[in-house]
Amino acid sequence: METKAVAEVVQSGHWAGGERVASLEESLAGLFSARGAVAIGSGVGALRLALMGLGVRAGTPVVVPGYSCVALANAVLALGARPVPVDCAVGEVNPNPSEIVAKAQQVEAFLAVVVHTFGQPVDLAPLKNAGLIVVEDCSHGMPWNQDGTPRPLEGDAAVLSFYATKLIGGGEGGAVVTNDTDVLESVLDLRDYTDKAAMGVRLNDKMNDLEAALAQCQLSRLPSLVEARAERAARYRKRLSEMVPSKAGTSLPPEYPGRIWYRYTVRLPSFDLDRVMAQMLALGVQTARPVSLWVDRADCPEAHRTESEILSLPLYPTLGVVEQDTVVSALRQILS
Ligand SMILES: *Cc1c(COP(=O)(O)O)cnc(C)c1O
């Protein structure tokens, strides 16, 4: 499907600024039941332009999760604004919504960026009730209904990354999705510099049609990709709960309703993660520390603890049963 879609774009001669980008934008707006979407060249670009479109300027404090991709800090810093991290809740990968609100009040921030980390949804209601403007980073996933559809956009904007390994892969790329026509217009305007004044604000944040065609393929299969991930996560749970006792604090990821299984992570508080990763690799299994931290330990001790404890196991829609058994056996061998 992907090969054919890319070949068609190549043959069409419209490699950029063509109808694939426009149709991806339409599909994304549909996915979130939102007014519109603007395709962007990267996730970090989407975040930067969404923040700018929502009024973040030099010096503006922006509340962000402490256990998160360094892209978040970079998008904020690129605007001369100030990232203010909130620590994870104890034993969780996301902050408590009430902590996000408290931090925003403390630093007088009007806006918070929220990440549904590893596909695990954050409840936005307390943030909206407190009057915060919310940008939802849905690069790992968006809150998902039982019926196999995403729930409509709740934040003031959603941003996505279409980097190759994300939930929706396009090689590179990103998007801003919103119901706010002013934000749509300003993100669209900020996306490129052509025929506009030289101000150093508008760079080149466009996505091309080859990337859009790839992202569209994955988007059109999103419910089945999400389902395939959930099946594999359920299999991990079943096999791992048989073999990994809650020995030494080892725990499997929480099964919150509405979560997407972007990553399957185990917590190994009494093991040296680098050593486990090397041992897994020697048994033919590539694992990862999913986040490399940018926050100080003093500001976010829980994020640092999480970073030192969480191991991400292979999880993708085409992961086979035999491969999954290899992962489970390798982990059993190392942890026992
Ligand atoms: C990958 C990622 C980004 C950055 O996206 P790029 O397309 O790599 O710039 C931002 N936020 C989250 C949560 C991500 O996982």
Automatic annotation (TrEMBL):
Protein name: DegT/DnrJ/EryC1/StrS family aminotransferase
SUPFAM superfamilies in the record: PLP-dependent transferases (SSF53383)
Keywords, comma-separated and alphabetical: Aminotransferase, Pyridoxal phosphate, Transferase
TM ranges: none
InterPro entries associated with the record: DegT/StrS_aminotransferase, PyrdxlP-dep_Trfase, PyrdxlP-dep_Trfase_major, PyrdxlP-dep_Trfase_small
Organism listed in the record: Thiohalorhabdus methylotrophus
GO molecular function: transaminase activity
A Pfam family this chain is assigned to: DegT_DnrJ_EryC1
Family listed: Belongs to the DegT/DnrJ/EryC1 family.
